[in-house]
Amino acid sequence: MIVEYIRYRVDEGRREAFTADYVLRIRWTSASDHLQGFRGSDLFPEFLAAIGPYVGDIEEMRHYEPTAVVGTGSSVPSLYEWAGGGDALERLTRLFYERVRADDLIGPLFAHMDGDHPRHVAMWLGEVFGGPDRYTRERGGYPAMLGHHLGKAITEAQRRRWVALLLDAADGAQLPADPEFRAAFLGYVEWGTRLAVANSQPGAPVVGSAPVPRWGWGVAPPWQR
Fold first, then answer.
1. Whole-angstrom distance between the N-terminal and C-terminal Cα of the chain?
2. pLDDT digits (tens, 9 = 90+) for 14-33
3. Of 17, 40, 64, which marks where a domain is finished?
4. N or C: which end of the chain has fewer CB within 10 A?
5. Number of structural domains the chain divides into
6. Which residues fall within 8 angstroms of residue 4, CB to CB, at 6 or more apart?
């Protein structure tokens, strides 16, 4: 069994149509079954007609053999890579906090937000989703993030608004819209915000020292299960 990944570079004006028309994750029994078997079959002309408008946007196509390795070296890309890396996450957080500032329900929680806060949250999300450990090295890791929530007494209504605005920002920032990524993304958002609400309550028993969680395709951090 092999996995095929194709990298496209689609201009901004066609991205929405591209994600609506063509999001695939393909597995083949072998490279030859793909390159010779499928391409020589009666099914290929219909498939080519469907993807034809985007063939010219392909930058790279590769086949990977799945391995038992998890993390760096695995044939499966991290959520960080799939999202588009640090630039995509900074685009997400900039748009998100613009909406937060204008929101009557959760805006007051961020009334004194530092101007670099969106960038720092992008660093946190990058590390959580399998990217560089910059938040740990530069911002103090999990204890620092925990400190932002202590004593805030965040309500469930505020949590739900936070989630809704972030999901809207994910659409606005054009993060990948495939169901697998969005399910994993939302899984972390639900997990993280519910933990933040619990930790924010006055007198709450909190875990003060822990690593930054690492989130995969539907896999929660084992140390918090």
1. 31
2. 878 877 766 666 777 887 88
3. 64
4. C
5. 2
6. 26, 27, 28, 34, 61, 62, 63, 64
